[in-house]
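wait is this the right file?? whatever heres the structure
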C-alpha cells in the first residue's frame, strides 16, 4: 500500500469509529474528526501536493460558502463588544478548530474513503447502539467501570451523534449494494437513540424520518418547501418562542414531557427572548451565553426572569444566534440555510431525501438542545456531511451520465 493509501486507511478508520468513540468518551468527536481530517489532508498532500490548495479553497467561492463565511465573520467581529471576552475566546477556541476539521474532512475525504470503512462504520454504529442500550439496562455499569460519571444523560451526546451519521452512512452502503448493512445501520442507530433518555435525539430521529418519507413519496418541492418553512420559522420565531409556548402549550403536554424539563425550557426561552428584545440589533457577542447573566442585556431583563440567564445557553441554537449575534447574525444564518436548501434541491434521489432528513433531524435537535457552538456537535455534522458527499461520489462513479455534484 502506498503512503497516501495508508493515510487514507487511517482516516477511514477514524471516521468510521467516531460514533463508538463518542460512547466511550462523549466529548471525543472533535479529536477523532480532527485526526481523520489531518490523515486525509496528509494523504492528499502526498498524492497531489500542487492541487491541494485548490481543492480546499475552490468550494469557498460558492455563494453558500460566502454566506456561511459572512456569518462566521460577523461572529468574530462581535468579539469586539463581548462583555466577557475570556469566555467568548474560550468558546471560539473550541468551535473554530472543530469547524476547520469538519470542513477539511468534508472536502478531502470523499472519493478517498477506503472501501472497508463503510462496513467498519456499520460495526461501530451497531456497537454504539448496543452499548447505549445495554449500559442503561445494566445501571450504567460500563460508565462506572470507565470511571465516568454514572448518570443516564452521559449517553445523550452519543445518541445525538447516531442521529447525524446513521442516515448518510446507510446511503453509502445502499449505493454500494450492501442493503442489508444499510438497514442494520439504521436499526442499531434507532436502538441507541430510542433507548437513551434524550428527548432531543428521539425528536431528531422522528423529524428526520418524517421528512425523508415526505421527500421520497411526494413531489420534489414538497420536502424542500417543508424544510424551508420549518427553518425560516425556527429563525424568525426564536425570540418569541418562549412566550408562544407559554401561551399555547397545554398542561397535559408538560406532564407528558416532565423528563425533558419542558417547563424549565419554556422559562429559559422566555428569559433569553426578553434579552433579545432588550438588544436585538447586534447581540451580546459571540460565545457570551455561557456567562450571559453578566452581560448588559441581562440587566434589562425583569429580575424574576434574570436567574435563568445563568443556565449556560438558551437550549435553542436559533435563539442563541439572536442572543449573541443579533439581527445581522439571524439574517445571515437564514440566508445560509436557504442557500443550503437550494443546493440540496439540485440533488437527485435518494441523496436529496437523505440530506433533507439530516437537515430536519439536526434542526429539530438544535431547536431544543445544546449550545450551538459545541465542538462535538460540529464534528458530528462534519462526519455526516462527509458520508453524504461520499455517497454522491459513488453515485457519480456508477452513473456517469448523471449529475454528480455534492
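ok assuming it is, sequence goes like this
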Amino acid at each position: 500500500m502506498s503512503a497516501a493509501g495508508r493515510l487514507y486507511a487511517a482516516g477511514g478508520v477514524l471516521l468510521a469509529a467516531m460514533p463508538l468513540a463518542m460512547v466511550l468518551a462523549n466529548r471525543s468527536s472533535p479529536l477523532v474528526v480532527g485526526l481523520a481530517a489531518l490523515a486525509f489532508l496528509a494523504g492528499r498532500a502526498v498524492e497531489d501536493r500542487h492541487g491541494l490548495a485548490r481543492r480546499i479553497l475552490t468550494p469557498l467561492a460558492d455563494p453558500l460558502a460566502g454566506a456561511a463565511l459572512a456569518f462566521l465573520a460577523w461572529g468574530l467581529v462581535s468579539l469586539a463588544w463581548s462583555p466577557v471576552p475570556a469566555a467568548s475566546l474560550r468558546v471560539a477556541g473550541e468551535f473554530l478548530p472543530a469547524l476547520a476539521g469538519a470542513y477539511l474532512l468534508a472536502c478531502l475525504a470523499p472519493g478517498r474513503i477506503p472501501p472497508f470503512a463503510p462496513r467498519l462504520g456499520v460495526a461501530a454504529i451497531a456497537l454504539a447502539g448496543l452499548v447505549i442500550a445495554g449500559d442503561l439496562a445494566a445501571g450504567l455499569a460500563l460508565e462506572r467501570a470507565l470511571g465516568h460519571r454514572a448518570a443516564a444523560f452521559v449517553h445523550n451526546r452519543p445518541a445525538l451523534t447516531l442521529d447525524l451519521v446513521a442516515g448518510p452512512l446507510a446511503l453509502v452502503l445502499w449505493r454500494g449494494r450492501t442493503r442489508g448493512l444499510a438497514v442494520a445501520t439504521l436499526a442499531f442507530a434507532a436502538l441507541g437513540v430510542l433507548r437513551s433518555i434524550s428527548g432531543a435525539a428521539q425528536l431528531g430521529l422522528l423529524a428526520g424520518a418524517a421528512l425523508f418519507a415526505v421527500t421520497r413519496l411526494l413531489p420534489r418541492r414538497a420536502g424542500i418547501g417543508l424544510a424551508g418553512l420549518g427553518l425560516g420559522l425556527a429563525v424568525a420565531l426564536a425570540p418569541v418562542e418562549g412566550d408562544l409556548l407559554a401561551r399555547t402549550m397545554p398542561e397535559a403536554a408538560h406532564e407528558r414531557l416532565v423528563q425533558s424539563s419542558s417547563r424549565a425550557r419554556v422559562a429559559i426561552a422566555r428569559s433569553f427572548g426578553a434579552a433579545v428584545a432588550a438588544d436585538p440589533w447586534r447581540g451580546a457577542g459571540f460565545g457570551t451565553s455561557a456567562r450571559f447573566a453578566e452581560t448588559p442585556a441581562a440587566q434589562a431583563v425583569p429580575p424574576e426572569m434574570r436567574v435563568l440567564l445563568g443556565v449556560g445557553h438558551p437550549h435553542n441554537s436559533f435563539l442563541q444566534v439572536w442572543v449573541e449575534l443579533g439581527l445581522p447574525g439571524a439574517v445571515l444564518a437564514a440566508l445560509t440555510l436557504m442557500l443550503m436548501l437550494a443546493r440540496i434541491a439540485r440533488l437527485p434521489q435518494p441523496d436529496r431525501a437523505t440530506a433533507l432528513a439530516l437537515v430536519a433531524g439536526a434542526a429539530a435537535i438544535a431547536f431544543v438542545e445544546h449550545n450551538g457552538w459545541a465542538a462535538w456537535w460540529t464534528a458530528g455534522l462534519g462526519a455526516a456531511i462527509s458520508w453524504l458527499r461520499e455517497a454522491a461520489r459513488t453515485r457519480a462513479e456508477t452513473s456517469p451520465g448523471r449529475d454528480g455534484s455534492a
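The longest helix spans residues 317-345. so i think its the right one actually
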